[in-house]
Amino acid sequence: MKRFRVLKAVAAAATAFTFYAVAQTNAAESVKIGIIWPLTGNAAAAGQASKAAAEVAADIVNNGHPELGEVPLAKTAGLPNMGGAKLELVFVDHQGNPSLAQQLATRLITQDKVHVLMGAYQSSCGFTATAVAERYGIPFMVGESAAGNITGRGFKWIFRGTPIASDYARTYMRFFADMKKQGKKIDSIAVVNENTDYGTSVADAIVDERIKPTYRSRC
Asked: What share of residues in the chain are helix, strand, coil (percent, to 5)?
């Protein structure tokens, strides 16, 4: 499931560039996607798994796999609206460091000349990297990061294909409501979260959501 979400994110990033590039050029030999993930550090396992999934997605798009049916961009080789242009993935490792993510986003745009960006798994890194993409007018597909502030700044070039913190909170509340309907007693909720942009954004959303109207929380 994780890999299929990454595949869809890669396809969405490619689609975002297609719409952007139609106004810029008739065709391209390749579409360069800069991918900013934690390939080392505490979240390396997630980053490496996502990298492997993205490589599979690029193979599906570039070489054509009609046997996969309705998987996005699988039926033909290359991007059909870009003259069959191939995807070229450029991976960088932000190591879970927001400042490094910002620097790498700048490098991908100014030196590697990528056409579109995606990432960055950790919300704190997504927050800084997307600001760079917005400044340069480069589409950025947020495929995993959940903090609502990433897309809450009114940016024009930032897109996301993932639930945000408030979506998680509403889902938790629906679960608790269903449990109460089954006769379970739930009088209070304790929220324990990691001290990151992701953790605090989800925790804050839960605190906000629990006020509607029957729960009290201890955080």
From this structure: 50, 15, 35
Domain boundaries, given as residue ranges, for the chain: 2-160, 165-218
If one looks up domain 2-160 in CATH, what number appears?
Answer: 3.40.50.2300
pLDDT band for position 23 (cuts 50, 70, 90): very low
Q: Which residue in 158, 175, 213, 169 sits closest to 191, CA to CA?
A: 169
User: Distance between the two ends of the chain, CA-based, in angstroms?
Assistant: 31
155-185 pLDDT per residue, tens:
999 999 889 999 999 999 999 989 999 999 9
3-state DSSP assignment of residue 30: strand
* Alpha-carbon distance values, 169 to 10, 77, 192, 207 (Å): 27, 40, 13, 8
DSSP, res 121: S
pTM of whole model > 0.70? Answer: yes
pLDDT in tens, 65-84: 999 988 888 899 998 888 89
- The answer to whether the peptide bond before residue 120 is cis (omega within 30 degrees of 0) is yes
Name residues whose C-beta falls within 8 Å of residue 155's C-beta, 6 or more positions apart in sequence.
Answer: 130, 131, 134
Q: How many CB atoms lie within 10 A of CB 86?
A: 16
